[in-house]
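Section 5.1 Outputs to date
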Amino acid sequence: MFGLFKKDPVKALHKKYDKLTEEAFLLSRTNRRLSDQKYAEAEAVQQEINALRSVK
């Protein structure tokens, strides 16, 4: 019952990952360097997600 309102960190990281990949895709049309940086950030978030899943 006390865990009912607890936020799921994996779900929040998935939203962040989706946002970063979308931004990277849009930037890939205009600025490749910034797009690569966004993809690198998204990859770091994906590694965090994998780390959290392996702990559970």
